[in-house]
Specification:
Blueprint: H1 2-16, E1 24-30, H2 34-46, E2 51-57, H3 59-68, H4 79-90, E3 94-99, H5 111-124, H6 126-133, E4 139-143, H7 147-153, H8 159-173, H9 181-202, E5 206-210, E6 216-220, E7 228-229, E8 232-233, E9 239-240, E10 249-251, E11 259-263, E12 268-270, E13 273-283, E14 286-294, H10 296-303, E15 312-317, H11 323-327, H12 334-337, E16 343-347, H13 362-368, E17 376-380, E18 387-391, E19 397-402, E20 405-406
Parallel strand pairs: 1-2, 1-3, 3-4
Antiparallel strand pairs: 5-6, 5-18, 6-11, 7-10, 8-9, 10-15, 11-13, 12-13, 13-14, 15-16, 16-17, 18-19, 19-20
The structure holds zinc ion (ZN) (2 copies).
């Protein structure tokens, strides 16, 4: 196990953030994952990091704060936290995030508090998110199983077995179980390139999605969109993988124009509640109606966050035969679940999905047709019988996916 963990930590540093000699590294980790965070630190120093800083969090204290703190603190984001991000952004830091949250952590917390805290946090970290979302700073997310998370995924198992089983799926899903995972990820990147190149050359003006679950969506893509998959390339030309695992190829829909119905194919775990059996109705790009069999309140929190959270910011294609799709497991963690099936995101679009987008101001992005919001929430809608038709600018239709698998 030690060797496996070390390889996984090294993978996060070398393939994930791709730390270069002389760069500071900021690791965010829960105190419960201190052991793994220290391994990541060691690997970062091995890669030549100038300094490793750990941004410790404690999810149990965070829950206590939500339950017991004075109400006004949920509208405040201390300026020193904004300054702290700026300090490391200015020094070209690489950000590595270790995720292990209990999916039920925020159960019973008043949703209004979460919404307000999220809003001020998003506002306070706007400049930092701008440099990570445009790939000016490199970053990567990887997961470590906590006992509570593992128990949620495998409620039928004893805690220890559940954690071991989840580790197994994480190593496999993150392609970290081979002899040389860093090499395996290079090969993974190359496999994406052909399909991404085809999609970028073809420049479909729209995609049509249909399946037996009830999805029937016409989705125009933004003009000059860029499909991204198999990792990202930093503005300094250094490649990295923001998410480990990653199986998706994704781009930017046009803000205006989506028409039809989308039915989710997997539940969405959002801030402590599990939204199940949900759907959206789109008219001219905007969510005009929505519903859920369970936790519709949480769905409403997403949709009503701001005007942009009613519009789409991402469309991602994933084949049925990806390792995570094959696991047929609900992870209650977007990092894994979003690699299980085709998905859409409500909210902010990634500027790098548009030619020249990273050099545009917010206003120019909006004028080009990119969506903006404080949120970016992925939800799954792919199925084994998903069919996707691409419409070329000439009007010619071309099958992109049949029965959940790529035909391009
Ligand atoms: Zn995605
Ligand atoms: Zn997304």
């Amino acid at each position: 196990m030690d060797q496996k963990l070390f390889k996984y930590a090294d993978l996060l540093v070398r393939a994930g953030g791709n730390v270069q000699p002389g760069q500071p590294v900021v690791i965010s980790s829960d105190v419960a994952d201190a052991g793994f965070a220290r391994l990541v630190s060691e690997c970062a120093y091995n890669a030549g990091a100038s300094e490793v800083v750990i941004d410790w969090t404690d999810e149990l204290s965070a829950r206590m704060k939500y339950l017991r703190a004075s109400d006004e603190v949920f509208d405040m984001f201390p300026p020193w936290r904004t300054d702290r991000f700026k300090y490391y952004d200015d020094r070209n830091a690489v950000y590595l995030h270790i995720l292990s949250s209990d999916p039920d952590l925020l159960q019973g917390v008043e949703p209004g508090r979460i919404k307000r805290a999220t809003k001020v946090m998003r506002e306070g970290t706007k400049a930092h998110r701008a440099v990570t979302m445009t790939n000016e700073r490199r970053w990567s997310l990887a997961a470590v199983p906590s006992p509570k998370w593992a128990a949620k995924v495998f409620p039928e198992l004893a805690e220890k077995e559940a954690v071991e089983k989840l580790w197994g799926l994480i190593f496999k899903g993150a392609r970290a179980d081979g002899e040389n995972p860093v090499k395996d990820w290079e090969a993974h990147r190359n496999n994406f390139l052909k399909r991404v190149d085809y999609l970028n050359e073809t420049q479909f003006s729209a995609l049509k999605f249909k399946n037996s679950l009830g999805t029937d969506l016409y989705l125009p893509l933004i003009e000059k969109h860029i499909w991204v998959g198999g990792g990202a390339v930093g503005r300094d030309g250094v490649p990295f993988f923001p998410n480990m695992p990653t199986e998706e190829i994704f781009t930017m829909p046009a803000r205006i124009g989506a028409e039809g119905r989308v039915v989710a194919s997997l539940p969405l775990s959002y801030q402590g509640s599990l939204i199940e059996g949900f759907w959206f109705e789109f008219k001219n790009g905007r969510v005009t109606d929505f519903g859920a069999e369970k936790n519709a309140d949480s769905l409403k929190l997403i949709v009503d966050m701001d005007e942009g959270s009613r519009f789409l910011g991402e469309v991602a294609l994933i084949s049925n035969n990806s390792p995570i799709a094959q696991m047929k497991t609900l992870f209650y963690e977007t990092l894994f679940d979003e690699n299980a099936s085709c998905h859409l995101a409500l909210g902010k679009a990634y500027p790098y999905n548009l030619a020249g987008g990273c050099d545009m101001t917010e206003r120019e992005l909006a004028e080009a047709g990119a969506n903006d919001s404080l949120l970016h929430v992925d939800f799954m809608f792919g199925t084994e019988d998903m069919s996707i038709i691409g419409i070329e600018p000439s009007g010619t239709e071309k099958a992109v996916m049949e029965k959940g698998e790529f035909c391009i």
